[in-house]
Each structure stands twice: as structure tokens, then as C-alpha cells.
Amino acid sequence: MHVDHAADAAAAPEITFDDFLRVDVRIGTIVEAEPFPEARKPAFRLKIDFGPAIGVKKSSAQIVDRYAIEDLPGRQVAAVVNFPPRQIGKFMSEVLTLGFADGEGAVILFAPDKQVPNGSRLF
Questions:
Q1: What does pLDDT average to over the chain?
Q2: pLDDT in tens, 45-76
Q3: Within 13 Å of residue 62, how many CA atoms lie on the same side as its CB?
Q4: C-alpha closest to that of 102 among 72, 75, 62
Q5: How far, in Å, CA of 86 to CA of 58, rounded?
Q6: Of 6, 33, 81, 99, which residue is the least packed, with the fewest Cβ within 10 Å?
Q7: What is the mean pLDDT of residues 22-29?
């Protein structure tokens, strides 16, 4: 499945509210960030705390162009937590960390503008 990240891409086909609710987007806090030199595209390996109900999950994020690895721990991010785990090289990514492409195509993390409890669900 190809997703067009361009700002001028047409809207996706219409879905129902129930379709939207099937995608479980939660807020978590990055607790650990490591280099991921084995990744095909430059990325970091993240451990993200989604609170007691979901726990700490792993994710690969292609955010190396706009973020220094030492600035990531403590930052809140949004992620889809109900996709099946995905093998990326020798790393098992458990959640999809969400972001938007900036004007140059680099990924900017999606996060709330104020602190919210880990595990909070998008609605």
C-alpha cells in the first residue's frame, strides 16, 4: 500500500466513523532512543511508554533528519497501537509512530501541544 505524503495529495476515500474508531491512536512518551544502523532508510529504534494498560512498545521511526537522538527521551508522540508487529531487519516494530512530512519530505513527529496522560486515545 502506497501512502502519498505530499501536502497537495487528494483526500483519501470517505470512511465511516466506525472505520476511524478501528484505528487505535494513542499518546506515549519516548523512554529510550537508539541508533538503527541496520535499517534500509535512516531511522531510530524507540521504546515508547503508553501507560499501564498498553505498556512500553518498540517502534522504528525515520526521523533522523529533524531530531537529535538525545532530544527524543521524554518527548510525547502519537502512534497506532493496534497494527500487527512488523519485522524490520532484526528489529520487531510493535507500533507505528505517526508524523507528517515537512516541505522537504523529512518526518515531523505528531504530538499533542500540551502534556496528556500516556495511553490517551485520539478521538
A1: 94
A2: 999 999 999 999 999 999 999 999 999 999 99
A3: 11
A4: 62
A5: 10
A6: 6
A7: 97
Rounded Cα distance, 17 and 116, in Å: 24
> What CATH superfamily classification does 17-109 receive?
Nucleic acid-binding proteins (2.40.50.140)
DSSP conformational letter for 121: B
Contact 25, 78 (CB under 8 A): yes
* DSSP secondary structure letters along 27-40: EEEEEEEEE-TTSS
Write the CA distances from 100 to 32, 86, 117, integer angstroms: 22, 20, 22
* Backbone conformation region of residue 74, classed left if phi is above 0, alpha if psi is from -120 to 50, else beta: left
Kindly indicate the confidence band of residue 4, based on its pLDDT and cuts at 50, 70 and 90: low
- pLDDT surpasses 60 at 2: no
Distances (CA, A) of 17 to 12, 25, 122, 123: 14, 14, 13, 10
- Kindly state the helix (H) or strand (E) to which residue 117 belongs, with its residue range: none
Strand 91-93 relative to strand 76-80: parallel, antiparallel, unpaired? unpaired
